[in-house]
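Thread: "does anyone have the structure for this chain?"

Original post by V.I.:
We have the sequence but no experimental structure in hand. Need at least a predicted one for the grant figures.
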Amino acid sequence: MDIRQLEVFCQVVKSGSFSRAAKALGLSQPTASEHIKILEEELGTRLFDRLGRRVQPTRAGLLLQGHAQRILQERDKAKTAIEEFLGIVRGHLTLGASTIPGGFLLPGMLGSFAERYPETTVNIQVLGSGRVVSGVLEGEFQIGFTGAQVPNSQLIYRFYARDELLLAVPPAHPLAGRKRIRAEELEGVRLIVREEGSGTRSVAEARLRDLGFEMRAGQVAAVLGNPQAVRTALRSGVGVAVVSRFAVREDLASGTLREVEIQGFECSREFFSVVHKARSLSPLARSFLDFAHASPPPGS
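Reply from O.Q.:
Generated one for you, tokens below.
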């Protein structure tokens, strides 16, 4: 039994497929299958039931899974300890981030981070806040950046940045000539909104409701799944939208979009880094986290 066999075993359990496990590990499917075959022969028992295209661990496989995960975790801890002792920061880091941190805040610091740590590669997966948090809990991500603090005693959150929501309008829109409007003046105005469950949408709708405005279904010009799509629709004149200031900062500076104040609307969101309390960070993950907090985005 060797470490590589256990890596393949755990990946097959996670993905439920030999082909997906092989792809994730950079192996051919026959090679991944051979690793499992040798492991099963050594242990003298079948570790997976083949159910069509999907595989599931047998009872013996489930028993092995816990031990294998602990062995791999100890391997990672040993490697991290040596790298910390030697002061080495290198390798590949995959982290999870919700749409605003992942799309507008963190990418701006990657260049300066790479200059300081040239032997590193950072991959940012942009996901919903809930998915980011679950990735940190399950060990998929060492670090997450999110706008929602999902309560869990195993997680440590740390303030990263504060964002402001604002009403953005195209220059040719009738509201573009106004500096300030009342919330009820949005009645009948065509709106671009984020998808249901979006933090931006939830916060904006709640605040506008407090100010006496309730969005009607007939007002919705478009429902879009990310801030970049909202920016494109705004610049195309589809309607107006409540958006993150970070998302449209360049558009406001260049004049391709205009900001119109909604009286009494003051509305902000906070973003946080999140790590697992019980898991040690690699030197690369620790360096990235420290660098991010030491270099907050402008305007936050």
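V.I.: this helps a lot. The longest strand covers residues 155-169.
O.Q.: and The mean pLDDT is 91.
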